[in-house]
Each structure stands twice: as structure tokens, then as C-alpha cells.
Amino acid sequence: MIRKIFISLIGLILVSGLKAEIPKYSNEFLSIGVGARSFGMSHAVVASTGDVTAGYWNPAGLIGIKRDADIGLMHAEYFAGIAKYDYTGFAIRIDDRSVGAFSVIRFGVDDIPNTLELIDNNGNIRYDRISTFSAADYGFLFSYARTSTVEGLSYGGNAKLIYRKTGDFATAWGFGFDLGVQYRFRKWHFGANARDVTSTFNAWSFNTADLEEVFLATGNEIPVNSLELTLPRLILGAARSFKLHEKFNLLAVLNTDITFDGKRHVLASTDFLSIDPHLGVEVDYNKLVFLRIGIGNMQLVPDFEKQNSFDFQPSLGLGIHWRNFTIDYALTDIADQSIALYSNIFSLRFNFHLPSSGKSN
Prior knowledge:
The chain has helices spanning about 1-15, 35-40, 55, 210-220; strands at about 70-80, 85-95, 100-115, 130-145, 155-165, 170-185, 190-195, 200-205, 225-230, 235-245, 250-260, 270, 275-285, 290-300, 310-320, 325-335, 340-350. By secondary structure, the protein is mainly beta. The chain has one domain: Porin (Beta Barrel), CATH 2.40.160.
């Protein structure tokens, strides 16, 4: 298994050599994240995730689900409710050593006015001819995780199906893979997730029959069918748990996102790779109440005098676990600690035993 992961990572680096011909930002809706716990910790969860949301963050972490099955839900709205982001996940234990999961992600803007037919053939403005459409992206993740024969080691993978649609004007289908590992040694947790490890493709198809006249009149180029690739990304993480008191525990985590598509505006970058760190802390009382803080999106921002200042995105989160239910909340800015509006994110998880297991809740 380790050999296969090593070969995949070598392929990841080789594929990155195509960056000059591939868009840097593709399928970005799959980079937003899922679960309010992760948002409260600035997405620094690749080493510590162990519930249904691991199907997104690191499929190897699915081994950590507490019961036979785990269900997760999340809803968030951005830009004053214009854009809506939804997540649903379901994980089920297959046997003592393996877990399967299915996740659905949707990011969309609905009820967009279509004014192509606003003016009729006689030059009259006809508001009754205005229709609406949606621009939505869908991600379907099929996950599998298994415990290794090496104590503390688990591994897993995702098969991703992507569907993107902009009204009747454009559609795209895509497919890709993720690979993940987790290793737990005493109070230390380590994790790695290679996203889009073979590069994820989107095949776009455009319906421009109703747009050609407008494109020609305005001098715009008429789009043709195209192929879009999402280059690999490597996410590394480490976490350490501490016993603060008899009923108080602390988890400190560090994530590092490494991209190979050229220089990005992150804390450390070269022409070959970019490194984006995330820090998070979670304090819990008897595994019932959780307080979380995180720092991410760290940047050195130059001012008019070409002096760099350190900028970052803070986040805050709360969680309550009662019996089989977990409710998480996160408050986070879209970009940094500016005066921009903060987003309120809620998520819910429910885990349970299946009737055939003979166990009680």
C-alpha cells in the first residue's frame, strides 16, 4: 500500500508540469469544505477527522465512526444568501476493518433572471418573457476506508463524480480520485490526503444556439466544447491531544495544503509549489461541549510602501454532543479579519447502530 501511495505522489508531481496549459482554479466548490467543526478549526482536520465528514476531508478517517452508521448534514449561505451550499453524507461500517460512505455536495445560485427574451420582435419590453435558471455544481463522493495490518494505520480513497450545469447553456461531467492515509500513535495523529491524485477532468458542453446573435453583436468569442483539468493537491496534517484536567482535553492541529499549479498568494510559494498552512485548537469538556478556534488563509500582503503585513482568516466554533447527536456551529469570515460579513455555518450529525448488529444505542 505504501508503495502505491508513493507512486501516486510521484505521478502527482509529474502531472503538475502541465500547469501552463491548465487553469489554476477548477472545481473550487469542492475546496470550500464540509462540517462546521472543520470550519471552526480553519479546515485543519485531515489528521483528526473520524466521522462521516472524513469522506470529504480524508477517507482514511472513516474508520473512526463510533457506531454502525453516521449521517451528516450541513447548510451554509454566502453573499447575503445569494449562493447556497449544502452537504449530505452517509457512512456505514461494512465489517470490523472497513467502512463505506457516500457524500453529496451542491453549491448553486438559483433564480437567476434570463432576459434573452425581454424584448420581442417588435421592440417592446416584455417582463412576462423573463424566465429564471440556476447555476449549480454537484459533487458525488463514493468513499472506502480500511484498517491496515499495521497498528494505528488506516487508508482509504474516493471516487468523485462531478456534474456542473448553468441553465440550458452549459453542462459538464467530471471524474477523479482521492487517496488518504491516517496514522495514530498514542496521543499523536498524522494524516495525508492526495486530492485529484490522477487529475480530475471536466468535459464541458455548450449550447450556444440562443446566444450566437448576442456574441457576434458584442464581438465575443463563441465558446466551444472543452476539457478542464483539476491538478493534484497534497494535504498533510498532524495533531496532538493533551489532558488539561480530569474532564478537560485539548487537541492542537496543523494542516498544510500543498499545490503544484504555480505560485499562489499564500504564506509560502515558489514557481513550482505553494504551501498554505492552517492552525486549529479544540477544547472539550468531557466530550460533551467543544470550543474551537482556527487561523487560516495566511498571507503576506504588501502595502503602498511595498511593506508586507501578515494577514489571516480567523474562525470560531462551538459543538454539543448529546447521546447520538452532534450539533456544530462555526463563525468565519469569507477571506480575512476584515469588516466583511461573517458567515454562520451549522451542521448536524447522527450516529446509530443498525438493528441487525444486535447493539443498543
